[in-house]
Specification:
InterPro entries: CobZ, FAD-dep_OxRdtase_2_FAD-bd, FAD-oxidoreductase_2, FAD/NAD-bd_sf, Succ_DH/fumarate_Rdtase_cat_sf. Helix content is 29%, strand content 20%. It has 470 residues and is an alpha+beta fold. The chain has two domains: 269 residues, FAD/NAD(P)-binding domain, CATH 3.50.50; 155 residues, Succinate dehydrogenase/fumarate reductase flavoprotein, catalytic domain (Flavocytochrome C3, Chain A, domain 1, Alpha-Beta Complex). A hairpin with a 2-residue loop joins strand 21 and strand 22.
Length: 470
């Protein structure tokens, strides 16, 4: 029997859509490309949700009003965001947690060292895996059917209306459909095509590590854009990209592969040169630009260098880095030119100006006369032992997606579809043109997943009513 609503995907946005549609009385079928053990996409690797709140609320301290959230988003995106949809996401983040709790999600105060986000982000008890499992349990109770290892390879669309989806040779009709199948970050060929050759004979995408699921290959995204003329949003080279441990596995290393000491030291490339301001802003607002910065360096590798003064001030990596008692010894251990490395470190140390160091605020420890500068938290690297972590670009999700509006409808030729909707990574580029701030991906997925599910149920009910009167 055909479902009222078909949800394609299996992560947070897809689950929110399925739950909302089921709550609205629709019969729902979810198609998840991954096996059951790997269900949930990138959502299984998440930890928290960025939340607007005007006063202290359970696990959130102080206040984080709409305007501050908006200004944070505006700053990290450089203005590449749709303000209407961004503010919709922000406002929705203030009211979604009670609904999440009703579906089994539990929250906890942030752990010590969790990026100073007790004011802005609500952490999931047990992380994203627990959230995903809670939603699947709730979906099952509501009668949502879930099929695993069911990748959809194409859709039938007539005049902007969804008709059916194809899983291999199987055709599945539905009254409405929600697309929440992720970006194309695990499609190496598409990444190579987007990034191209860098003029040094290198294809940067060949050295990208995929932080999350191997199943987000962008098959439906490309199909909608190329074959059906769906309206697009975003730059295919923009993504949530983090500087992660160069030793990380190719897929599913998740959050534990991140290196969080960047703002406490300096970062040098293979030529032992600094290339960006490590202290530009708080790490939660800047960690997701460093993957892209490293991707632009020779060999797509860089080295985060700290001294003993930084230890204990950041979430330690899973594996120890390279350690040495002297800076020349550290350069040798990293395989960097010792003379060039020492020139960079001595110039940095000499440029540091005395101040009152405080990593919990934008302090006055800065460099002077140095390019690039270090704007905050600049202290000489002079106290052994010295540590360094080799980092590579870790791509979480891509920002190229489907243009949408407040209804979460997919758009064709300037018109919204009446029964095809989109949520999560497939439309995040409407809010995130570039950059990132911690937890906002889950805010977008939750807001638009719920909107898409609700509107898909209404669209399916309208179609059912039309058929009944036909």
């Amino acid at each position: 029997m055909s479902p009222d609503v078909l949800v394609i995907g299996g992560g947070n946005a897809a689950l929110c859509a399925a739950l909302m549609a089921a709550e609205a009385g629709a019969s729902v079928l979810m198609l998840e490309a991954a096996p059951r053990a790997w269900r949930g996409g990138n959502s299984a690797h998440t930890r928290n949700l960025r939340c607007m709140h005007d006063a202290p609320q359970d696990v959130l301290v102080e206040a984080y009003p709409e305007e501050e959230f908006w200004q944070d988003l505006l700053k990290v995106t450089g203005g590449l965001t749709d303000e209407r949809l961004a503010r919709l996401t922000i406002r929705a983040s203030a009211t979604c947690r009670d609904w999440m709790r009703r579906h089994g999600v539990h929250f906890q105060p942030p752990l010590s060292g969790a990026l100073h986000v007790a004011r802005t982000n609500a952490f999931f008890m047990g992380g994203g895996k627990a959230l995903v499992n809670a939603y699947y349990r709730s979906a099952e109770k509501l009668g949502v059917r879930v099929r695993y290892e069911a990748p959809v390879d194409r859709l039938e669309i007539e005049d902007g209306r969804f008709v059916a989806a194809h899983v291999g040779g199987e055709r599945i009709e539905a009254g409405a459909c929600v697309l929440a199948a992720g970006g194309f970050e695990s499609n190496r060929e598409w990444l190579r095509e987007a990034w191209g050759e860098n003029g040094r004979g290198e294809w940067p995408a060949d050295n990208f590590i995929i932080r999350g699921t191997r199943f987000n290959r962008g098959v439906l995204l490309r199909h909608l854009l190329a074959d059906h003329g769906a309206e697009r949003i975003g730059d295919p080279t923009q993504a949530h990209m983090v500087a992660i441990d160069a030793r990380a596995p190719l897929y599913d290393g998740g959050i534990c592969t991140r290196i969080d000491c960047v703002s406490l030291g300096v970062v040098v490339n293979r030529q032992a040169q600094r290339f960006y301001d490590e202290g530009e802003d708080f790490w939660p607002k800047r960690y997701a630009i460093w993957g892209r910065l490293v991707a632009q360096q020779s060999g797509q590798i860089a080295y985060s260098v700290i001294d003993a003064k930084a230890i204990g001030r950041f979430m330690p990596p899973v594996f120890p880095g390279t350690r040495a008692e002297t800076l020349p010894g550290l350069a040798l251990a990293l395989g960097l030119d010792v003379e060039a490395f020492m020139q960079t470190l001595l110039a940095y140390n000499a440029a540091c100006r005395p101040g009152h160091f405080d990593h919990t605020r934008l302090d006055d420890c800065r460099t002077e006369g140095l390019s690039p500068p270090k704007t905050h938290w600049a202290r000489p690297i002079d106290t052994p032992p010295f540590h360094a972590y080799a980092v590579r670009p870790g791509i979480t999700f891509t920002y190229l997606g489907l243009r949408t509006d407040e209804t979460a409808a997919v758009r064709f030729g300037g018109q919204p579809s009446e029964n095809l909707f989109v949520a999560g990574e497939m439309m995040a580029g409407n809010v995130l043109g570039k950059g990132y701030t911690a937890g906002v991906g889950m805010s977008i997925g939750t807001a638009f997943g719920r909107i898409a599910g609700h509107n898909a149920a209404r669209a399916a009910q309208r179609q059912g009513a039309r058929h009944a009167h036909a």
